[in-house]
Write the structure tokens for this entry.
Amino acid sequence: ENVVVKMPICGVAIVGRNNEPLLLRVSERNPPCEPIEHIVYSALDIVEEETSPKGKKLQQLFLGSLYPLEDGRCYGYITNTKIKFFIVTDAASNRDTEVKQVFERLHNMYVQVASGPFFKHDTPLTSTRLISFIDSVLTT
């Protein structure tokens, strides 16, 4: 189930309910400007702020561009079960519509994997189907 992406995605991360990294993937040919772990931890601070009781009420799953990077952007998406998805692009321009479509596909793929009989919550994701989907959207 490959998806055609017309923008440069250089990293994808899935983070659990307790902010533990479940899956981090980066493009080998076009990695992010800084380690994806650093980008994700910075993004998590923003997500926590946005979704805290003091923050605005979460109306939608797509959080949009969380912050600009040296040569790109980090986008966020949070599920009703508090699983967080992050996409790092190396495009400085805002690409909300395209990124949102990738997040929706990623969320659907995650739901399929999480619905499996052997799925364990809050553990690293090892599904080859999910990993190959993510690898298909990374810049090659």
